Structure formats: structure tokens, C-alpha cells
Amino acid sequence: MSAFRHLHAIAAASALVLCGCAPPPGQPHRGAESLAPNEVLEFGTLYADNCAGCHGLNGRGGAALAVADPVYLSIADDAVIRERIANGVTGTAMPAFARGSGGSLTSKQIDVIVSGIRSRWGGHDAADRLNPPSYTATSSGDAERGGLVYKTYCESCHGGDGRGGSHASAITNDSFLALVSDQGLRSIVISGRPELGAPDWRGNVPGTPMSEQEVTDVVAWLASHRVRTPGQPYAVTENEQR
């Protein structure tokens, strides 16, 4: 066999071997197929696509509070976080993501988000170490007492009657109160907004953390400022409301 024929035979054999390992022309390589949206189970992708727009990149907060906050994760357990993701919060900017509630996420995908938030950004023992007020109120709030609590802990930043000050925004604003639930207010009072420089329940008055009842009362005071038609620039008669 000539040298040319020998080289030609080797090349042909190599091509056969390569063809045996590769897919036919025009077919995708193994692993190149895109997953269907309901098959995505990677936390980073699910969080980026569904949560980061409001809760910020890496959970650091944005339009909504930070979920990568050990204080928040110390008061909100996995069941609470899962329920909020699945069903949303009626009357607020938090939508429902579960398929059964009109969203697009499967139960398994929601589980991935919940477990990812916990494993990356908080520990199960955080509540024991921080000893914060409870996630939900354990007693009724009193708006009148809450006004006094506000003056003690909040007025220096948020201004008289919550209308805003030199260090923080208005928190009795119609639009703000229309987008946050009472539970959302409580969560913010307890965990603060660290990404905005707002302290948690321990930092408003140095050395004097807010008590469980004080948190409940100031939330009642804030909620008492809600109006029936937030942002309405004109009076509405009873006939027009019907």
C-alpha cells in the first residue's frame, strides 16, 4: 500500500470513529436541549427570574424587603415563606406564583426557592440567637399607644406624623400603605430595611429595643392612616362609589 493510500485509510477510519461518537448532522448534542420552564430546578435561575426584580440581586432588597437578611429569616419560617410565594399577599404588590393560584411555578420549584433562600442566607437557629419579636402579633394593637411609640422610635427619621424627614421617607403615605399589608409593616418594623439604612427593632433607640407590644401598637398606628381610596385627588360621593 502506498503512503498516500495508507494515510487515506487512517483518515477514513478516524472519521468513522468520530461519526460513531457524534450525533447525526443537524441533531443537537447531548445536554444541549433547553429545559421547559416547569423543569427548571436550579435556585439561581428561579430566583433571578421570579424574585430578584423586587427583592434584589442576591436577596439584598429592592422594591420589596431583603430576604437575604438574617433578622427577617429569624422571624419568617419556611412555611411562611412558602405560603407567601405560592399564594401572594392580597391587596399588595406581592403576586401569587403557584400554578394553583394563577402563577407559573410548580410546587417543586417553590420548594427549591424556599430551601435556597434558607440555605444560602439564613440559619434555622437564627431566631434563638436574635430573640426578635414574633412574626405575627400575639395581642391586639392600640393605635393611640402606637402614636407614642412612633414618637419615641421612628419620628426622628420619618418625621412628624410619618410624613417624611431628612433621613427617611414618608410611611403614612397613601400609596405606600396601599401596597403593604399589616403583616408587611410588622416585618419591616422588626427586620428594618438594611439596604436602605433603616435599623431593625433593636436599633431605633440605642440600647432600647422595641418590645413585642410596642411593635404591635406602632403597626396599628400606621395602619390607622390607611384611606379608603388611596391616591384619589378628589372627593367621591356615595353615589359615585356604588
Keywords:
single chain, mainly alpha, Cytochrome Bc1 Complex, Chain D, domain 2, 13 helices
Fold and architecture overview:
There is one protein chain. The longest helix has 19 residues, at 3-21. 47% of the residues lie in helices and 0% in strands. The chain has 242 residues and is mainly alpha-helical. The chain is built from 13 helices and no strands. Helix 5 packs across helix 6 and helix 8 crosses helix 12 (212-223).
Write the layout of secondary structure elements.
Elements: H1 3-21, H2 43-50, H3 52-55, H4 70-75, H5 78-87, H6 107-121, H7 126-130, H8 143-153, H9 155-158, H10 174-178, H11 182-191, H12 212-223, H13 238-241
Helix pairs in contact: 2-6, 5-6, 8-12, 11-12
What's the level 1 CATH class of the largest domain? Mainly Alpha
- List low-confidence stretches: none
CATH superfamily of the largest domain: Cytochrome c-like domain
CATH architecture of the largest domain: Orthogonal Bundle
Overview in brief:
By secondary structure, the protein is mainly alpha-helical. Helices cover 47% and strands 0% of the residues. It is built from 13 helices and no strands.
